[in-house]
Amino acid sequence: MDEHDIFSLNERFEQATTEEILRWTWQTFGDKVATSSSFQTQSVPLLHLIAQVCPQMVVIFLDTGFHFSETLAFRDELQARYQLNIKVIYPAIDKNQLFRQYGEGLYRQDPDLCCYINKVEPMKRALHGLTAWISGVRRDQTSHRQGLRILEPQADGVLRIHPMLNWTKKELWNYINRYQLPAHPLFAKGYPSIGCAPCSRPVFAGEDERAGRWADKDKTECGLHL
Ligand code: SF4
After folding, report:
1. Residue 118 CB less than 6 A away from ligand 1
2. How many structural domains are present in the chain?
């Protein structure tokens, strides 16, 4: 696929539905494509669509060792409900080793390094041998994401595919309500966006939905989507 193909497909996919993009992706790449999920409330529409269009697709879950127990339980609930083909990937060093090597506060002192060890490097391993990776990011989530395209070739040769890029928060919620999709157990406790426990807090009235992520830092992305 050259630059011209990517350009034409991006033009076409701006008008396409998420189902159409998923169907094209599965037909084009088959078992050389995987998606990843953080198993939060906002992740459910994409997983629901994948379960209908391409249920065999691998869903990568990065188990950083810092997730809320509710996230792990929600992941298991969704796996049972939608028969998802989940593959759990762990960091190269476990939590004990991490603490011995860097102390227990690495997420505070150097969150970029912590995310690299626990998310970015494991994801690189998970993508080894794959041609494409589907991510559920949306343009309305962060300023960085506003500039993304639906198909984004990466330097490592893996094609990033963003089939939900044009969804708005309102459309996401309409979909969740229409199909009565389940919510992460902590959603009702003020977590519209949730990641590792030490780096997620509930949001307050009037705050952005991602305001609880790395709330006391400039950081807005873990590095997977940069
Ligand atoms: S989100 Fe926080 S705890 Fe999780 S890997 Fe990143 S810095 Fe570490």
Report:
1. yes
2. 1
